[in-house]
Amino acid sequence: MTEHTNKQFDADLERVRSQFLAMGGVVEAMIQDAIDALAQGDMALVDKVREREKEVNRYEVEIDQCISQILARHQPTAIDLRMLLAVSKMLTDMERCGDEAEKVATVARRIHEGEVRTVPMVDLRHIANRVLNMLRLALDAFARLDPVQAAQVVRSDKEVDKEWKAALRQVISFMIEDPRTITPSIDLIFIARALERIGDHTKNMCERVIYMVRGADVRHTGAKNAEKQARGEEEDTETTG
């Protein structure tokens, strides 16, 4: 490569990196606004989430096109190639996080505009804050190329799964005790499930960060193995926990 080509390549890589981080920031704001809309009944926040979802879609298309152009023009190798491949996969998970946030906002509108006023008191803010923190840590791990922090996020998804199951049990008990809560209870289940899915997508992105830095594919191998790979230790093929 000539010096000019090298500079262009570096600029193109930085563009992908910075745009992905910007996309993540938009998704983070969507999740926060969606859960605030549920808690406060502020329908202006629902509209804001829906507008931001369009912005996320634009980011996905633009970054994907940029990656394709870099691969065609520069034929990158080693960590640069892994970064591009990882971001290409992470784009899908990030966009789906935005989709789930929009679902939360849409259901929040339905709850607050519905005729049923008997809504069970189920606090979903804790699980929402947990997945928001996961996403922040995932973006930070990506920005700093920190596989150890990424592995911590992979493990923390187990706690989100526990909270989702606890919320489900709580909502079901409300439905049994008071049939008037059935309709809003089902809506709350949809919201809790959407938040749990955001946790899953964030975990997927962190597995890609580990691949990007270490070159190790830790999907479906368990949190313990992800942590070992993140530290640069040998794979334990028998580890699944």
From TrEMBL:
It holds the Pfam family PhoU. It comes from the Bacteria. Keywords: Cytoplasm, Phosphate transport, Transport. One of its GO terms (biological process) is intracellular phosphate ion homeostasis. Coiled coil: none annotated. Residues 222-241 are annotated as: Disordered. The keyword Ribosomal protein does not apply. It is found in: Cytoplasm. The keyword Manganese does not apply. Homodimer. Plays a role in the regulation of phosphate uptake. This is Phosphate-specific transport system accessory protein PhoU. It comes from Bordetella genomosp. 9. The lineage of its organism: Bacteria, Pseudomonadati, Pseudomonadota, Betaproteobacteria, Burkholderiales.
